[in-house]
């Protein structure tokens, strides 16, 4: 029997051994991202308003991969002077935010640099394809506390009015003046007691992730479910403040502002997510129901 010749491995050319063209840029972006992520972990992720941010960051990167983002197709294009200007602006904003401790500017500039770099190496068509994952990743940028307060101020008034109305109708000695709630001999501010509204951004982000993954092909279902997210969040926060009023009445303000306050926030955030999932189930039953006639 004749022996078959063994094929020798073909040596790889120096061109095959070269690193991709985007490697130095990715390394530079990573050097910017590491200190920013450390700052976010210390200043934002430990607060109620920022607990969703590491979840959004991890799931957002997964969405990019799941949506077909492949850096191996990256190539250095002819260049776009407008993108180059945006890179310079993003770098200046990042340096300013980092130097003066503006975490929002630092995070927003880093996100903007990431999007512009994707455009430069993959093109506008790929950026449009990744529109939702990039929009979702923007929820990982820490929002300033004053901005959250400005947006949620009308909601705080609504929540304080509704919760005192519920407690008063149940016979508890409560009164309201603006966003201040008086419970027997205690006084509490809705800005503090209703800080669960800070989790509104996190609830919207995680709900959007669920809706996109599960109902990506059904825009009617997705839009209808999205429209219910904010009303669910408001209802849950009304329930939260009502529970805190009862805790203050029975156990005192110190207990309510301690561990029970954090516990009610976590439990009711989970309840809000469960309500979104339950509503999704009801809508699915309604649209899967066969029509007669």
Structure, explained:
- The chain is mainly alpha-helical.
- It folds into two domains: 20-143, no CATH class; 146-288, no CATH class.
- The protein has 14 helices and three strands.
- The protein has helices at 14-17, 23-43, 53-66, 81-100, 103-122, 124-129, 131-137, 145-169, 190-193, 200-215, 219-227, 229-251, 253-256, 259-288, and strands spanning 174-177, 180-183, 186-189.
- Strands 1-2-3 form a three-stranded antiparallel β-sheet.
- α4 (81-100) packs antiparallel against α5 (103-122) and α8 (145-169) packs across α12 (229-251).
Keywords:
2 domains, globular, 69% helix, 14 helices, 293 residues, 3 strands, mainly alpha, three-stranded antiparallel beta sheet
Task: Give a quick summary of the entry.
By secondary structure, this protein is mainly alpha-helical. It is built from 14 helices and three strands. A hairpin with a 2-residue loop joins strand 1 and strand 2.
Helices and strands in order:
Elements: H1 14-17, H2 23-43, H3 53-66, H4 81-100, H5 103-122, H6 124-129, H7 131-137, H8 145-169, E1 174-177, E2 180-183, E3 186-189, H9 190-193, H10 200-215, H11 219-227, H12 229-251, H13 253-256, H14 259-288
Antiparallel strand pairs: 1-2, 2-3
The portion of residues forming beta strands comes to under 5%
In terms of structural class, how would the helical and strand content be classed? mainly alpha
In order across it, which strands form the biggest sheet?
A: 1-2-3
H and E order: HHHHHHHHEEEHHHHHH
Instruction: Please state the CA-atom Rg, rounded to the nearest Å.
Output: 25 Å
Sheet with the most strands, sense and barrel status: 3 strands, antiparallel
Q: Approximately how much helix is present in the residues?
A: 55-70%
Uncertain segments: none
Number of strands: 3
Counting DSSP H or I runs of 4 or more residues, the number of helices is 14
Distance between the termini: 76 Å
Count of discrete domains: 2
- Overall shape: globular
Mean residue pLDDT:
80
């Amino acid at each position: 029997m004749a022996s078959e010749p063994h094929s020798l491995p073909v040596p790889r050319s120096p061109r095959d051994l070269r690193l991709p063209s985007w490697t130095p840029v990715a390394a530079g972006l990573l050097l910017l991202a590491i200190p920013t992520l450390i700052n976010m972990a210390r200043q934002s992720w430990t607060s109620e308003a920022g607990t969703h941010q590491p979840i959004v960051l991890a799931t957002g990167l997964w969405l990019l991969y799941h949506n077909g983002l492949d850096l191996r197709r990256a190539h250095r294009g002819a260049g776009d002077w407008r993108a180059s200007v945006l890179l310079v602006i993003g770098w200046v904003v990042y340096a300013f935010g980092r130097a003066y401790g503006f975490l929002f500017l630092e995070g927003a500039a880093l996100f903007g640099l990431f999007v512009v770099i994707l455009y430069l190496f993959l093109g506008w068509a790929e950026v449009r394809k990744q529109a939702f994952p990039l929009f979702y990743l923007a929820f990982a940028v820490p929002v300033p506390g004053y901005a959250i307060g400005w947006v949620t101020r009308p909601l705080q008034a609504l929540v304080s009015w509704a919760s005192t109305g519920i407690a008063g109708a149940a016979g508890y000695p409560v009164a309201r003046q603006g966003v201040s709630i008086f419970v027997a001999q205690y006084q509490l501010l809705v800005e503090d007691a209703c800080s669960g509204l800070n989790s509104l951004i996190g609830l919207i982000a995680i709900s959007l992730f669920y809706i996109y993954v599960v109902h990506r092909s059904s825009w009617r279902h997705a839009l209808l479910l999205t429209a219910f997210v904010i009303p669910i969040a408001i209802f849950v926060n009304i329930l939260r403040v009502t529970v805190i009023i009862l805790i203050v009445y029975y156990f005192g303000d110190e207990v309510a502002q301690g561990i029970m306050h954090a516990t009610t926030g976590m439990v009711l955030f989970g309840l809000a997510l469960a309500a979104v999932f339950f509503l999704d189930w009801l809508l699915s039953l309604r649209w899967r129901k066969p029509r007669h006639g």
